[in-house]
TrEMBL record:
Keyword DNA-binding: no
Keyword terms, alphabetized: Plasmid
Superkingdom classification of source: Bacteria
One Pfam family in the UniProt entry: DDE_Tnp_IS66
Organism: Leptolyngbya boryana NIES-2135
Record bears the keyword Transport: no
Limits of the Transposase IS66 central domain: 3-37
InterPro entries, A to Z: Transposase-related, Transposase_IS66_central
The name this protein goes by in its record: Putative transposase
Length: 77
């Protein structure tokens, strides 16, 4: 209630989960638990980059070059 950096609604959280549910619906699920975890980790990384206004394509390029972009962590005031 006091931190105005936090959005009023949770629509972004719902949007973040929608891709996972869509993948389950289209392909019938994941072939393994590890595959689902990897998918979630990649989607979470991309979502965080977008939320922080970073260039997703450049960040993914840096991941494959061995120099991943680490999103910043917001500290409560």
């Amino acid at each position: 209630m006091l931190d105005f950096r936090v959005p009023f609604d949770n629509n972004q959280a719902e949007r973040d989960l929608r891709m996972m549910k869509l993948k389950q619906k289209i392909s019938g699920g994941f072939r393994s638990v590890e595959g689902a975890q990897m998918f979630g980790r990649i989607r979470g990384y991309i979502s965080t980059l977008k939320k922080q206004g970073l260039n997703v394509l450049e960040a993914l390029k840096q991941v494959f070059l061995g120099n991943p972009t680490m999103p910043t962590v917001l500290q409560p005031e």
